[in-house]
Amino acid sequence: MVSSTTAYDPMSAYSTAIKRIEKSGIRPTKQRRILAKIIFDKGKRHISAENLFDEVKKEDRKISMATIYNTLKQFTNIGLIREIVVDQNKSIYCNNNQSHYHLYIEDEGKIVDIPTKNIDLNIPSIPACLQLHNIDVIVRLRTLKDKAKS
Amino acid sequence: MVSSTTAYDPMSAYSTAIKRIEKSGIRPTKQRRILAKIIFDKGKRHISAENLFDEVKKEDRKISMATIYNTLKQFTNIGLIREIVVDQNKSIYCNNNQSHYHLYIEDEGKIVDIPTKNIDLNIPSIPACLQLHNIDVIVRLRTLKDKAKS
DNA sequence: TTACATGCAAAGCATTTGCAGATAA
DNA sequence: TTATCTGCAAATGCTTTGCATGTAA
Q1: What was the pLDDT predicted at A98?
Q2: Cα A92 to the chain's mean position, in Å?
Q3: Residue A50 near residue B52 (C-beta atoms within 8 A)
Q4: B99 DSSP 8-state letter
Q5: d(CA A131, CA A119)
Q6: What angle do CA B99, B104, B107 make, to 5 degrees?
Q7: pLDDT for A45-77, tens place per residue?
Q8: How many CB atoms lie within 10 A of CB B9?
Q9: Any chain A CB within 8 A of the CB of B91?
Q10: A87 touches chain B (CB under 8 A)
């Protein structure tokens, strides 16, 4: 039995994903399987729609952008991946389901995970009519040479 | 003498802003003064380009969208306002220069400030070649009725 | 068989840009 | 006077949509 995804296991991440797709009610179509494989078979990573499109092409296959966007949205809805909002002009998704935060190197567009245990966070109490959905922490860094520029 | 903006003073926020514009080297043109007034004369708030456009119109004036976008970017560059990245499809800016985090009610697009002192944050040490630019903390909330929906 | 999924091309939308005319210093 | 700014309209780039075709169950 597949337990809740508290630990990331690269060896089974793909098959776990397929099981979760099946359970969620969306069909494990060819395109969804290809995308799940690319997303989950290479360890923890961050992906954009364009990345995925290119990686599919590298394998001499083709999935349309429309399908890639739809699939990313569906995978997000069923909790398979998580959207990281770091940059206004590009959606980036994260295949790491463990609780974690992000380090973002602004000049390079590079994202690195920080395990939650390295961050100590106490937020104020939440009103009864609302529920906590997520806490995003983005530590924004710049390279030193860019400091001089600004 | 205008000290660094560690405290928000609604009474002088506008004139402080004008002084900082002058110091920064960009011209305090008519449009920039109007926008600075709207941004800083109504207490702490969050603003989008569209908001500003509408508020200018309400005063029976007109500033083009291009100018509003340019101005928001310039004000951000000189540190007058800060961009909050909460939503992929809309840029939102914050006129609060004090260190603080955000509570974001996703279904309503509503943003509320949380003073930094209410959050306890320890981040890992930063490599020498990088400098900390900012730490964004976004506490994402949902209304309970939307929980049922998902 | 049929409800759901895919993919193309077109549309949508926030934001940016080119450039001619306007303006601050 | 002249470097800078403004604003229009057109361009851009990411994302979504409409719809005809294809596919999983």
Answers
A1: 85
A2: 7
A3: no
A4: S
A5: 21
A6: 165
A7: 999 999 999 999 999 999 999 999 999 999 999
A8: 10
A9: yes
A10: yes
Q: How many CB pairs under 8 A join A and B?
A: 103
Task: Tell me how far apart the 2 most distant CA atoms of chain B are, in Å.
Answer: 55
Q: Which of A106-110, B76-80, B125-129, B134-138 has the highest mean pLDDT?
A: B76-80
Note the CA–C1' distance, A84 to D25, in angstroms.
Answer: 34
Q: Cβ(A40)–Cβ(A14) under 8 Å?
A: yes
Q: Do A135 and B139 touch (CB under 8 A)?
A: yes
Where along chain A do its domains lie?
10-97, 98-150
pLDDT at residue B145, as a whole number: 59
Yes or no: say if B49 and B83 are a contact pair by the CB < 8 Å rule.
Answer: no
- Strand C contact nucleotides, protein CB < 7 Å: 4-10, 13-18, 23-25
| DSSP-derived 3-state class of residue B72 | helix
Pair A142, B126: CB distance under 8 Å:
no
CA distances (Å), B10 to each of A50, A103, B38, B43, in order? 44, 34, 12, 5
Q: What is the mean pLDDT of residues A89-117?
A: 89
DSSP string spanning A54-119? HHHHHTT----HHHHHHHHHHHHHTTSSEEE---TT--EEE---SSEEEEEETTTTEEEEEEGGG-
Rounded Cα distance, A93 and A75, in Å: 10
Per residue in B105-138, pLDDT (tens digit) is 988 889 999 887 766 677 778 888 999 988 999 9
Place of tokens 């364009």: A50
- The CATH number fitting domain A10-97, selected from 3.30.530.20, 3.60.10.10, 3.40.1110.10, 1.10.10.10: 1.10.10.10
